[in-house]
Each structure stands twice: as C-alpha cells, then as structure tokens.
Amino acid sequence: MSKSNENGNFEPLAEGTDNAFEATMLNANAFLDDTNMKDEDDDVSEEEKHEGNCGANEAPMTEVNLSMSIAAIRQRESRESKKQLAQSYYDRVKELDMFVAYFNAKEAQKERIDPYRVAVRAASAHILKTERINLELMTRLEGRIQLKNFLQDWLKSQAPQKGRPSPMETILLPDDNGRRSGCLHMTSRAYSLSQEEFPPRETFQEEVQDYLDVKIHVDENGISALEGHVQFTVDANFENVAKTWWFGIIESTPLLHSTIVEKFGENIIYVKQELAGMQYKRLMVAGVFLDEAKDRITITQTGIAFDERFPFTEGESRANGTQWVIFQHVTDRLTIVRWSTLNHCPVNANGPLSVEETALNMRISLTENESEESILAKIHSGCELVLMNLRDQFLRRCSRFKLEPITLGSRDFPLNI
C-alpha cells in the first residue's frame, strides 16, 4: 500500500462527533490488514525466489545478489511501516485521551453551572412577572390621569371662562346626534349655573329688593362678555309668570319672528328668532325646569353663534351666550323673578365684532374719533336700557293676571308647542 493511502486513512477527529472512536478504530484495522497483506506478499515472493534459486544453480551470482538486495529493502520497508502504524496508534490514542478529557471537563463545568442556571431562570421569571405587574399598574395610572384631566376640563366648562367662550356655548355640530348632545349639554349646564347662582331661599323676606346691574368684561381683543343681573317682583302666580316668559320665546310678534326648529324631549327646544327690518338673527336652545322641592321654575336660554345648518348671510350678526330666569314662588299672588345674562361678544361671518361694530349693532350713535372708553360707556348704558325695557314690557304682559283667578295646585308646565 502507498503512503498516500495511509494519509487518506488518518484524518483528524472532528470535535463533537459521537462515533469518533469507532471511526478511528475502523481506519486503523483497515491499515493493519493492508500492511499484513503486503508482508505476506513479500514472504511469498521471497520463498518463490528462494525455490527458483535452488532449482537453478547454474544462474549467475549477480542475479542472486540482486534478489537478496530487493528482499532486504522490502523487509526494511515493512519494519518502517509497522513503526509508522504503531506511531499512528499512539497518536490516535493520545488524541482520543484529549477528547475524553475535554468532554469530562465540559460535563463537570455543566454540573457546576446548573445550580446557577436554575437561579438565573427563577430570577428572570420574577423579573418578567414584576414587569407585567408594573405595566398593568402604569396602564391603570394613565387611565386615571386621563379621567382626572377629563373631569377637570368638564368642571371648567361648567363656568364661563374669562376672555374666551367655550366651544360648547357657541357651536352646534351638523349631525343629529351631535346636535342633540350639544343642546342637552348646554341646557343642563345653564341650569346648573342657575342653581349655583341662586341657591334655595331660607326665608321669603330674603332679598326681595328690585335691582338691575350690568357689567362689561373687556380683554385685549375688545369686549369679551356682557353680564347683566335683574331682579323684580310680579303680582301673579309663579306658574303663570313662567308661562308668559316661555310664550315670549316661542310666539312671534310684529317685531320678532320666532320659529321652532327642533324639539328635544318634553322641555328643550331649538328656536330661531329674527328681528324685522334688521340683519340680526338669534339661534337659541331653551329649556324649562320645574323644581317642586324648591318651589320654583327655571327657564334657560343659550345663544348659538355657529351652526352649519344656518350659515351667516351678508351683513348678519348673532348674539351668543347664556341666560337663565328663575321664577320663585312667594305666595299664590306674588313671584320673585331673578334674571341673569352672560352674552359673549356678537359675531358675524368674520368672527367677533369690534367695540365700534358692537355699538353700531346696538344702534348706538358714535362720533368721529370717539375713544374706546366713551364707546364702552355708551354700550353699558345701552345694555341697561335694553334690560330695563324688556323688564317693563314683561311686567305689562303679566299685569293681566291681576284680573284673573289664581292658579292653584296644578304644578304642571306643559310646553304647548
């Protein structure tokens, strides 16, 4: 066999192979068989040559010497092959010992690491559980923060904000659900404000003095709101007085045309009012509430500035804001009326009116280069005059009840729409 064959049979043992030892032993046995076969062939050849030499004594001496030299060379090669085989066995055994030592060390290391691995896995599971709990707690916290912010915004929306009107006070959405929700919200908000402004009376003799007060709220952009408070008494039953006010909202007159646009339940309506001969329109959500425990009736009115179903026309302006009227029962023939208004600056298609435009919209005469303080004073006087005229007009309408019998025990307030 050639040396190339020997080299082909002795390849390095691959690390991590389970059958490495068996493969090595098979290669070694194959090499040993090849070497034994070579030695047997050499012995047979030498015997044949010896017999041939014995049978041919007449052969020349030089041929015998040549045969002996060839036999010596073959014996020497055989001895070298056996030495190489033994060395290869030694090297292979040494290599296998190294692999055995490596695997033994690896198993020992694994046995040492396993206790720590269990602890690491337990710690990892605990960390994952803690992170999951923290995530749940953080989600709850964020939800409560959002709820807190929502409630704060809702609380702020229940009171007029100085310098800016709330969108819910001035805008109605075009879709039916949005309009209904907006109208219900604005009516409930106005009613809540009226209850805070005028809590239940402790005695009938408390605060019966008539008065009228007007305030103008001004910011850097001009007039932000016009606030008015009126209190007076009417010699009539509080139900009849409240019905008179309500009919003034829904009924048309030669100067004011009223149209009921929508109804929401039994006590809320959406009304459009237009003054004859003027580019003035008032869109209003009105509601009526009977409070038997406090023995009074409350009517709320919220002016709408922007409604996509009723776009602005050329030169049109609109009042907007909130007002409420409380009809407090004193006796069957005496009623205290508390009327509060908070009207924001009138608006047109371009936005809020300026101080001069507001004065002109109220038909107040102005001089050239008149100062803003003077214009505001005229607007203040004009608002007082308007409230006073409306109060007197309402008292005249209620005077007819002096000649009619009082209403007893009805405690109903039909809208009669």
Spatial extent as radius of gyration: 56 Å
Number of domains: 2
CATH top level of the largest domain? Answer: Alpha Beta
Q: Could you give the distance between the termini?
A: 123 Å
Low-confidence stretches: 1-18, 35-52, 54-60, 162-168, 408-412
Per CATH, what is the topology of the largest domain? Answer: Alpha-D-Glucose-1,6-Bisphosphate, Chain A, domain 4
Overall pLDDT level: 77
Q: Proportion of β residues? A: 15-25%
CATH architecture of the largest domain: 2-Layer Sandwich
Which bin fits the share of residues in helices?
Answer: 40-55%
CATH level-four homologous superfamily name of the largest domain: START domain
What is the N-to-C order of secondary-structure elements (H for helix, E for strand)? HHHHEHEEHEEEEEEEEHH
Q: Which geometry do the CA atoms define?
A: rod-shaped
Query: How would you sum up the major sheet?
Result: 9 strands, mixed
Computed structural class:
alpha+beta
Total number of strands:
11
Tally the helices.
8
What do these coordinates show?
With 417 residues, the chain is α+β, with helices and mostly antiparallel strands. The chain has 2 domains: 3-123; 173-403, 2-Layer Sandwich (Alpha-D-Glucose-1,6-Bisphosphate, Chain A, domain 4), CATH 3.30.530.20. Helix content is 51%, strand content 23%. The chain is built from 8 helices and 11 strands. It has helices at residues 3-9, 20-55, 61-157, 167-170, 176-197, 238-250, 355-361, 372-398, and strands at 171-172, 211-219, 222-234, 256-264, 268-275, 280-291, 296-304, 306-307, 317-331, 334-348, 351-352. Strands 2, 3, 4, 5, 6, 7, 9, 10 and 11 form a 9-stranded mixed sheet that branches. A hairpin with a 2-residue loop joins strand 9 (317-331) and strand 10 (334-348). Helix 7 runs parallel beside helix 8 (372-398).
